[in-house]
Write a structure and sequence with these properties.
The protein is an alpha/beta fold and 349 residues long. It folds into 2 domains: 162 residues, Rossmann fold (3-Layer(aba) Sandwich); 175 residues, Dehydroquinate synthase-like, alpha domain. It is built from 14 helices and 11 strands. The strands form 3 sheets. Strands 1-2-9-6-5-3-4 form a 7-stranded mixed sheet, sandwiched between helices. A two-stranded antiparallel sheet has the order 7-8. Strands 10-11 form a two-stranded antiparallel ribbon. The protein is globular. The termini are far apart. 46% of the residues are buried. The structure holds nicotinamide-adenine-dinucleotide (NAD) and zinc ion.
Length: 349
Amino acid sequence: MAEKNNILFDTDTFSKLNSFLKKGKYSRLIVLADSNTVTECYPILAKNCAAIQKADILEIDSGEAFKTLDTCKELWETLSEARVDKNSLLINVGGGVVTDIGGFVASVYKRGIDFIHIPTSLLAMADASVGGKCGVDLNSLKNQLGTITQAKGIFINSVFLGTLSQRHLANGIAEILKMGLIADAKLVKAMQDNKTELDTLIKKNVALKMAIVKKDPHDKGVRKILNFGHTAGHAIESCFMGTEDELLHGEAIAIGMLIESIIAFDKKMIKTNELQTVIDLIKPNYTVMEFSEAEQEKIKELMLHDKKNKNDTIRMSLITKIGACKFNVEVNVAQIQKAFKTYHLIIGA
Ligand SMILES: NC(=O)c1ccc[n+]([C@@H]2O[C@H](COP(=O)([O-])OP(=O)(O)OC[C@H]3O[C@@H](n4cnc5c(N)ncnc54)[C@H](O)[C@@H]3O)[C@@H](O)[C@H]2O)c1
Ligand SMILES: [Zn+2]
């Protein structure tokens, strides 16, 4: 059993979960799942972990559109009406949306009740369930409300990936790719070779993320390198949220990494061959969409939002080679605009 702090993974996670729940002396167990994970994942859990069978189940609609304060309010009301007390445990069974919402709901309810994560998507196993960040979107702005609160346990078992679509697998791969690009050239090489098992990629990603989070749990310094691809990526994700071109988080981050690598190249932080490596990893594997002038304008505004400094510059995390990243790099509007032009040339638009 690989154990990193409170993170457990292996085929043995269900029995570890069982003993955790039995030992925990919690007054109530509440499972939070979404409309997919309640049918695809909860039955697997209930079959393999007797202690979870006595949990009450709360179900939310699936998808980023429901990662809102309204969903949280409904959950808080339900918990309160059901007189769920401070010694209860919230068990989040789902992808990153469920772990983000569940962590936030638990960290605020009665000033904080314990919660654990049982991530079921690749993205949540490798990334979202780890590190303590939780929260919700505010209108079209991603993750504007939230806390950094650590789960009491994270039980990772890749058995759940059996029902995950190819699109959602690629979605999770994008975050693992990001980790390689910012922190581990060997991981990038392994992904290029495409021979490494998903379990190994998940473990590697979790270990790398935990090492960074431990150095800077409150996101004041080095943890910001995890935001590589996310300044542009979040803006792109927000721009298309609720439209027919809506992108998954990892899909938007993949495009974001390409645009931000172009900025790094223009700032002479990376060389041509390094930019080419990023292009080769992203262009064939993700939908690199074309952006109209109006969309580019909207994305640029979203990127500048609340991060604007003097002279219309923002601070970004940009790679300095394959496997290294620098945070707080100043980027101006002209550099962003130029990167969009180059991006369109690269994708052949
Ligand atoms: N807190 C963090 O550190 C962090 C890091 C990265 C991403 N995130 C957040 O994570 C979210 C994206 O996570 P996600 O991609 O997991 O989204 P998600 O939770 O919406 O899951 C994706 C879809 O897959 C379904 N699903 C999940 N597991 C399944 C399974 N085993 N079988 C079948 N269907 C399954 C879900 O119902 C959903 O429809 C975003 O909101 C992003 O902002 C948070
Ligand atoms: Zn992300």
